Amino acid sequence: MVLNADFRPLSYYPLSLWPWQEAIKAVFLGRVSVVHEYDDAIIHSPRMELKLPSVIALKEYAPTHRRPAFTRFNVFLRDRFTCQYCGRRFPTHDLTFDHVIPRCRGGRTNWLNVVTACGACNLRKGSKLPKDCGMPLIREPFRPNAFQLQDIGRRFPPNYLHESWRDFLYWDSELEE
């Protein structure tokens, strides 16, 4: 797992992971610091052996983009993988996006006019406005910043989390009393 110089993950969803070869290369080039190592994974070369890093941190801070790219995945993440018409959560392969104001009525493809929809709701709405077909939006579309997407992404942990990663994924989360 890769952390920024402030020890926050470069991204939460998808989690910032590098192949082990890239991690070793970055260690040897002095670009990262090893924060934690796997206990039972050792890399061998003809002249040396070293433990495989499980958590590394960049030595120089990589600024996060304030304006995330407008992508299908980022729209799904902004909307929490939830259809904005029926309110049900779906896996990404069962989601599509819908133009709130249809393109045939002059609607644009941008953050403020596109929402996550399931196939059934998208088909039902068709080229109508939500109010014309009795399908009000659960949440109005908005342009998220990088911090909002990171915060949302933190709620969707990957399927596999190594023990050594857990401390760094949620260290800045609010604790329960």
UniProtKB/TrEMBL annotation:
Residues 70-123 form the HNH nuclease domain. It comes from the Bacteria. InterPro entries: HNH_5, HNH_nuc, NA-targeting_endonuclease. Keywords: Endonuclease, Hydrolase, Nuclease. One of its GO terms (molecular function) is endonuclease activity. The keyword Nuclease applies. Pfam families: HNH_5. This is HNH endonuclease family protein. It comes from Caenispirillum salinarum AK4.
